[in-house]
Amino acid sequence: MIKNGRPYTNENGAVDDELISALPKEKQDTLLNWICQNLLPRKTVLQDISSYGLKHKFEHGENGFYLTNNMFKDAMMKCGYEPYDPNELNWHYGISKKSPVFSQREAKTTWTNILEVLSLPDPCVSQRFSLHIAYRVGNGV
Fold it and tell me: C-alpha distances in angstroms, 81 versus 15, 63, 89, 115, 122?
């Protein structure tokens, strides 16, 4: 819900009313810049991902850090994204599936996985890595 122009959550007695103003200015700027750089607006609502899912994409990103769902919703409002239904626990917004956040996450996951595999103390790692790359290239992945 929205209370006094800011997001407010009271789910089964658990209140989340923290706003991004509770964060240091540097972290506020990091979050707001991430939203502006990674999300593209559109007129229709995207049901595929909610504020909670976007929050996790931010947290697991390069400069991400922990924040509450309410803080993330507050940041989205500050960036001009209004919730489709403010009475939902996890808000949905008019954002494009073509937003950089969706393609970057896939690429980051792939390279993170590759780096993890290469760091394993296993003599077959380079062979498995080569097979993985050959499969992905051969199948247009």
Answer: 22, 21, 16, 35, 47
| 18 and 71 Cβ atoms separated by less than 8 Å | yes
For CA atoms 35, 38, 44, 46, the dihedral sign is negative
Nearest to 62 by CA among 40, 25, 41, 37: 37
Give the global pTM: 0.72
Q: Which of 60, 58, 32, 48 is nearest to 90 (CA)?
A: 48
Characterize 64-100 residue by residue with b for buried, 16 or more Cβ atoms within 10 angstroms of its Cβ, and e for exposed: eeebbbbbbbbbbbbbebebeeeeeebbbbbbeeebe
Condensed to tens digits (0 to 9), the pLDDT of residues 59-79 reads 999 899 999 999 999 999 999
Q: Is 60 helix (H, G, I), strand (E, B) or coil?
A: coil
